[in-house]
Design brief:
The chain has 5 helices and 4 strands; from the N terminus they run αααββαββα. By secondary structure, the chain is α+β, with helices and mostly antiparallel strands. The strands form 2 sheets. A two-stranded parallel ribbon has the order 1-2. A two-stranded antiparallel sheet has the order 3-4.
Length: 136
């Protein structure tokens, strides 16, 4: 905001969608409050892109009718756990064991299919397909 007010052209480059855990909302509000014009060019969120690149759809006819995206840094007892709903956790690898335990305690079946994609789109990307019980 200060640099834009000072006559500079400012670019805030964020991979993916700046409004999905990217602070784009807060930055847009700050610019609006300061009367700084903003142009947002959204990208595709990693919540969908990384799964698609790994060949894993977040929705699939007859299997998953919707999906929820949350960070892996929070408690998950409140998330939907119907058999036809995909849960996408971003930034959740460090808490994976704790997260899978929480999901099972919250009512998700241990046999629920799951996938963990680490370092998506990078040369050392790793995809693990298992069940919640196997990941716990």
């Amino acid at each position: 905001v200060d640099r834009a007010r000072g006559g500079k052209i400012v670019v805030r480059l964020k991979g993916g969608d700046p409004y999905v855990f990217g602070r784009g909302g807060e930055e847009r509000l700050a610019c609006r409050a300061a009367d700084v014009p903003v142009e947002v060019v959204p990208g595709v969120t990693s919540a969908i892109a990384v799964a698609a690149a790994a060949g894993i759809p977040v929705t699939h006819r007859g299997v998953a009718r919707g999906f929820t995206v949350v960070t892996g840094h929070e408690e998950l007892a409140h998330v939907p756990h119907g058999g036809d709903h995909t849960l996408v956790l971003l930034m959740g690898v460090k808490r994976l064991s704790q997260t899978t335990d929480e999901l099972i305690r919250a009512g998700h079946r241990p046999t629920t299919p799951a996938a963990v994609i680490e370092r998506g789109f990078l040369p050392d990307q790793r995809v693990t397909v298992a069940t919640l019980g196997e990941l716990a």
